[in-house]
């Protein structure tokens, strides 16, 4: 089954460019387009895309609020890939905090765009971990987020779960974590699932953001 994608951007040329790049791949299908975040929820419910590639800044409803709305109102929400002009942008970090699974630069090369969509759809690795770390260092309150610290304290991660979370924050995939810890991939998946459940995180991106904001992992 192909990865299905909904494109949301107020610039028709951007949507056309993304569509051309993605539809050149046999395993990716663009199922719809929208010009503003306000149109996302009905289209998500109608089309059931695997991934929403969404501009972070739009005139009526931006990507941050659209992300929050989708995650709040859609029972089985898609993965959300924020599309942005600037990577070191507080809007991008706020979108990640709101629940986006990753971000993509509008100037990215076609191969990077395809890779980002596939990686976010699979959900087994962190997209652009160095950039997420940089954003967390600049906008993540330096580990001083009380709510994030409280969540981390309540989680009571085991030693192995804590080790897995630190490796997730470095951007390692499940297979890479398994190799590092000399365990099976299924064992790593179980640990990742336990970490997400204990932190109340939707995916590994949200778990890593919580790890940075609580000070459990230093972003530097």
Walk me through this protein's architecture.
By secondary structure, this protein is of the alpha/beta class. The protein has 11 helices and 5 strands. It has a 5-stranded parallel beta sheet with strand order 2-1-3-4-5, with helices on both faces. α3 links the parallel β3 and β4.
Question: How far do the termini sit from each other?
Answer: 39 Å
Numbering strands along the chain, what is their spatial order in the largest sheet? Answer: 2-1-3-4-5
The number of helical runs is 11
Count of extended strands: 5
Beta-strand content bin: 5-15%
Order of helical and strand elements: EHEHEHEHEHHHHHHH
Name the assembly state.
single chain
Nearest-angstrom radius of gyration?
17 Å
| Poorly predicted residue ranges | none
Bin the helical content.
40-55%
- Look at the helices and sheets and give the structural class: alpha/beta
| Overall pLDDT level | 92
Shape: globular
Major sheet, described briefly?
Answer: 5 strands, parallel
Give a quick precis of the structure.
This protein is an alpha/beta fold and 220 residues long.
Q: What is the fold's blueprint, element by element?
A:
Elements: E1 3-8, H1 12-23, E2 28-34, H2 40-47, E3 51-55, H3 63-73, E4 79-84, H4 90-98, E5 102-105, H5 110-122, H6 129-139, H7 146-155, H8 159-169, H9 174-181, H10 185-199, H11 204-214
Parallel strand pairs: 1-2, 1-3, 3-4, 4-5
Features:
single chain; about 220 residues; alpha/beta; five-stranded parallel sheet; 11 helices; 5 strands; about 55% helix
